[in-house]
């Protein structure tokens, strides 16, 4: 299996949609937590690959010591809207015990470079972050994303309307 390697003992990216005997591909949110904790069967992980991960423009798992600890992806909400066809939205999740160790920052930096190299048609990668998720906002800023503004009551999550912060990086921006 080919991988994208970080220096030292940082995470590696496995190719999208392929599962070895040592790894599972994780979905976002609760499924990620279940997989990291070993509560989700391998069949569920394979189903995720076949039915969900393949819907992303770009999807990778974040691995440390041959164990999946998170995922990162780029999707498009353009559909048939040609006006949004040159943009993608990056999303990432990481098991909480790996927060604050620089792993998400390294994963996002590496991913943005790879995404712009592999998908030359993309001009913009954006990210939406809950206003209370200061850690994720800091990750994006360290990776060269520009904070564009707050989208008030943009998403409805867990029974509550949430403000989201919009960040973006352009293919023409200097890479950090």
From TrEMBL:
Keywords: Transferase. It comes from Senna tora. GO terms for molecular function: acyltransferase activity, transferring groups other than amino-acyl groups. Residues 11-163 form the N-acetyltransferase domain. PROSITE patterns: GNAT (PS51186). This is Putative N-acetyltransferase p20. It comes from the Eukaryota. InterPro entries: Acyl_CoA_acyltransferase, GNAT_dom, Kinase-like_dom_sf. SUPFAM superfamilies: Acyl-CoA N-acyltransferases (Nat), Protein kinase-like (PK-like).
